[in-house]
Amino acid sequence: MLYVSIALLPLGFIALWQTGLIFQDQRQAGERGMIALSEKAAARDRQIMKRAIGGAAALATSAFSLKDRPALCRTVLRRFVGNSALYTFVAFFDDTNRLACASVPSEDQDLLDTRVQDLPLRGDIAVYRSEADDVAGPASLVVVTPVLEDGAYRGQLQLHVSPQLLFPRPEASSDQRPAGLITFNNLGQVLTVEDHKTPAALDFLPPKINLAELTRPFQYAFDDTARNGQPYRYIVLPLVPDAVYALATWPSDAALINTNRTFLNTTLFAVAAWAVSVLTVYLIMHRLVIRGIKRLSRQMSRFNAARQVPEGAISGRGELYAMEEGFRTLARALVEDEQKLEASVHEKDVLLKEVHHRVKNNLQLINSIINMVLRGKPSDETVYVVRRLQDRVLALASVHRMIYEAEQMDRVD
What pLDDT score does 125 carry? Predict the structure, then answer.
């Protein structure tokens, strides 16, 4: 059983390896699904921001050409804001960061100068969140578009986007939308929050991560623990390259990514399949091989102990049948040879005993002849010599008698 288990270990490892690949594919598929749903959830923000950036880029050229005609520039900007419910305010600043014209009356522009003096001069598109004031209106997203002339910075256009158009989102089932969704700029400033509750939304963010560190030119996912202590999977999406990003928060047990149970079940299934394979192979080997070998071993033991030749039908199959049949043939031949050998030995023993018996009888006859000589009253010297000869003859006769009377003829006590 141990050797069978070891022999099937490679199959078990292959099954676990394949299970790992399946788990990895499922996790990647779940991640792609989350990214797609996150893209869908942030699609409105992406569309509005790209539209605002495009409008700002087109309007910046017109505002720059009219910067020396403030009245006409202001009229164009006010008409642009008035014709779209998406925008609330627009202003153009020259390369010294001085307000050239805006979509507010001229008497309100002095109020704007103080508010915009601290804005950094930018050479690329930027989006940030502004606070509410009496001139530009409520809090909004500000799209800053630089104006370049022959590669030189000539000013910037600031376009404020109405937040009311960003926040409302279509209803969807909970498992098809992230638990939280925010947008942020490349500096890490939060731009929009899905449910208007910025402090509550921040509880879903990792405590040790600066949003500015998450900016990358491609979409990706990572796992972390939020400020509320719960584990989440985060999806980072670039909405506007190098400017605006979205961060979607998904529960770690979401159906799209909760592959741990699937991995566990698949692993248990692989282990169970390996165990069943081991048991099946063992049962097959026991029935077809081990049981036949044990039966053959018992037959050999009985034959070795009592020269009992197996009888009855042979139940083995294939090579085991040939082995058992060969053993029975060999056992019968061996028994027959032993019987012949025993008969031959017995015959030789009888002949040897008969020889010894005849020799003993002949020696007795010689002893009788010696007695006849002694009855003839020979001389004392002759009697002495004959008696010594008679003793030797009787000794030889006794030896031959003990040999043919003994059970083993190779030794005599």
Answer: 83
SS3 207: coil
DSSP-derived secondary structure for 359-411: HHHHHHHHHHHHHHHHHT---HHHHHHHHHHHHHHHHHHHHHHHHHHSS-TT-
Distances (CA, A) of 55 to 24, 81, 188: 43, 11, 24
Render 96-115 in DSSP notation, one character per residue. TS-EEEESS-GGGHHHHHHH
* Residue-wise pLDDT tens digits, 315-328: 777 777 788 888 88
DSSP letter assigned to residue 123:
S
Q: Please give the radius of gyration of the chain, using alpha carbons only, rounded to the nearest integer.
A: 57
Distances (CA, A) of 77 to 70, 108, 123, 349: 10, 15, 22, 140
Q: Do residues 235 and 38 lie in contact, with contact meaning Cβ atoms separated by under 8 Å?
A: yes
Region 236-250 average pLDDT: 89
Does residue 103 register a pLDDT over 70?
yes
pLDDT greater than 70 at residue 55: yes
> Mean pLDDT, to the nearest integer, of 176-180?
78
Name the residue among 168, 155, 123, 143 with its Cα closest to residue 81. Answer: 143
User: Which two tokens mark 304?
Assistant: 């070795």
Q: Would you say how long the chain is, in residues?
A: 413
What is the pTM assigned to this prediction? 0.56
Triad 135, 138, 140: Cα angle to 5°: 110
| Cβ-contact 49, 143 below 8 angstroms | yes
Distance CA 46, CA 278 (A): 57
How far are the Cα atoms of 28, 183, 207, 401 from residue 190, in angstroms, in the given order? 28, 6, 15, 127
Residue-wise pLDDT tens digits, 253-308: 765 555 555 556 666 766 777 677 777 777 777 677 777 788 888 888 888 888 88
Backbone angles phi, psi at 191, to 5 degrees: -95, -55
How many CA atoms does the CB half-sphere of 5 hold within 13 Å? 5
- Please tell me whether residue 12 adopts helix, strand or coil conformation: helix
**If 0-12 CB within 10 Å is exposed, 13-18 middle and 19+ buried, where does residue 360 land?**
buried
